[in-house]
Amino acid sequence: MKIPRLVISAMRGGAGKTLLSIGIIAAWRKCGKKIAPFKKGPDYIDTGWLALAAASPCHNLDTFMMPQEQVLKSFLFRSSKSDVAVIEGNRGLYDGIDHKGSTSTAELAKLLDSPVIVCLDCTKSTRTLAAAVLGCLRFDPHLKIKGVILNRIAGARHERIIRRSIEQHCGIPVLGAVPKLIRQELPERHMGLIPPAENCRAQDAIAGAREMAEAYLDLKALAAVADQNVLVKPDWKVPDTLCIGRGAEKGATEPDQPPEFRRTAGRRDLKKAAADEPDRELKIGIVQDAAFQFYYPENIEALEAEGATPVFISPLKTGPVPPVDAIYMGGGFPETHARQLADNERFKACLKSLAREGLPVYAECGGLIYLGQSLVMNETSYPMAGVFPIVFGFSDKPEGHGYTVVEVTKKNPYFAVGTELRGHEFHYSRVLKWDGNEADLIFSMKRGSGFINKKDGLRYKNILATYTHIHALGTPLWAPALVRNAREYNRAKRLDRKNDSSCRFRSG
What does the alpha-carbon distance between residue 244 and residue 301 come to, in Å, rounded to a whole number? Predict the structure, then answer.
């Protein structure tokens, strides 16, 4: 299977590779190419911009959170019907989680057998950049660095010196030279770029990046580099759909069956009920809006593969919670929408009532904050849903940042005790006050900060809320568990002859 592909990397973070990747994708798309965009590593915001530029979902490739074979399968499946795949790296080319460069962009490029283009921030540098590029070329001769793009060029003389130095000493071409741009179309804040969903001029920003690429990059030469005659020859068949495994960790015990679903003597057995009454359509509410937008596409797809129908809801706009059998609350920026979230009393009250009834909820980071008692911003307290007795505040620097490894230490409805999960965290929020019990925390942090005291994973009935974000391809047990809980909740409510009127706000 021949897949034209290109990895866009840099010497460090902030060198401009996201803007270049967006520009290349948008320019090629304008030429009629179908682009498969990818982002290396855990990221939600850059993927949103890449997806907007390509008019196609962007998927993450992460060799820490998911096995290498799954990374390859995902890449092959997602790019098999495209004209070219563009993979944006993260951090510096060789930067990884250890001195060996594990999980680095370079290691991913070698795994995909992809050529690499290096973006160089040329600010206040000339010939030294040639030495840096030469070092990258010799650092790992197995890596296919096929060209560089000069960024933030001060003028014609600046470009000429750097171009001649690199081409003379490094033997690779300069495939573009971008001047210092006067306008900044991709504004940033504490977690990186502002997501396109919050940028009213997102399409203008994409158009600006495309015009930059058309004016300053050699798009034909870049396409020639991507269109190399290299065959990816996996020893397994490319699946029609991605396979989501279901195996548990060795030695792990079964997840705890929620007490709400245990039937006493004389009550109908759930299995018999399932045989007598076919399942109705399962609906899982996906909380998605400007405040909650951090979701991997594969996570939603995994829920659909298990038979659930996503229903997108918003605490910013929705009144009461609509009829659903479970809720998945991802991360985002509740802090930038604190007043709106606090003002929607109907949604908060309905969610809290449903939580007490046993509605399954899986929440990550921003979702965890929303389930707390309140959020304090600039000495103003904003009431949240009040499911957990937690007051959150914010710091000027990250309270948790990077990959996480957690061990499940207590029974819960989602993961077997003894299971090890890999994910990531990135949050500026912190716990100001917590009136809970550490017995309610089911995760022990082997790597990462977590919620408090190297613990994470708050459980309340059928709710699990955590700072750790997981990816369905790396945590294949997650989607079946959430759908299983949704199905049990659905059946239990029918068996108990309860309906949507149990939440007094639903009718209004």
Answer: 10
Question: CA 140, CA 198: separation in Å to the nearest integer?
Answer: 40
Q: Are residues 283 and 176 in the same domain?
A: no
Please choose, from the candidates 244, 194, 201, the residue with its C-alpha nearest in 3D space to the C-alpha of residue 46.
Answer: 194
In the chain, how long is the greatest CA-to-CA distance? Answer: 87
How many structural domains does the chain have?
2
For residues 359 and 271, state if they share a domain.
yes
The residue range of the domain holding 494 is 259-502
CATH code for position 169: 3.40.50.300
Whether residue 200 is contained in a domain is answered as: yes
The reply to whether 126 and 267 lie within a common domain is no
- Residue 244 in any domain: the answer is no
Domain assignment present for residue 68? The answer is yes
Pairing of strands 331-332, 400-408: unpaired
Tokens of 294: 């951090």
Q: What is the pLDDT of residue 204?
A: 87
Q: Active site includes 200?
A: no
Give the CATH number for residue 431: 3.40.50.880
285 closest CA partner among 305, 309, 311: 311
Give the active site residue among 119, 170, 350, 365: 365
Gap between the Cα atoms of 142 and 385, Å rounded: 53
- What pLDDT is attached to residue 199? 60
Query: Tell me: the pLDDT tens digits for 328-369?
Result: 999 998 998 999 999 999 999 999 999 999 999 999 999 999
pLDDT at 500: 52
Q: What is the pLDDT of residue 2?
A: 83
- What confidence tens digit (pLDDT) does each residue in 109-153 have? 999 999 999 999 999 999 999 999 999 999 999 999 999 999 999
Same domain, 408 and 451: yes
In this structure, is residue 254 part of a structural domain?
no
Instruction: Return d(Cα 149, Cα 388) in angstroms, integer.
Output: 50
H-assigned helices in 55-92: 68-79
Q: Are 119 and 175 in contact (CB under 8 A)?
A: no
Note whether 400 and 452 are same-domain residues.
yes
Whether 163 and 264 share a structural domain: no
In 3D space, the residue among 149, 17, 32, 143 whose CA is nearest the CA of residue 86 turns out to be 17
Task: Examine the domain organization and report whether 182 and 280 are in the same domain.
Answer: no
Instruction: Say whether 38 sits in a helix, a strand or coil.
Output: strand
Element (H, E) at 8: strand 5-10
Which positions of the chain have pLDDT values less than 50?
189-191, 231, 233-234, 236, 238, 240, 243-251, 257-278, 497-499, 502, 504-508
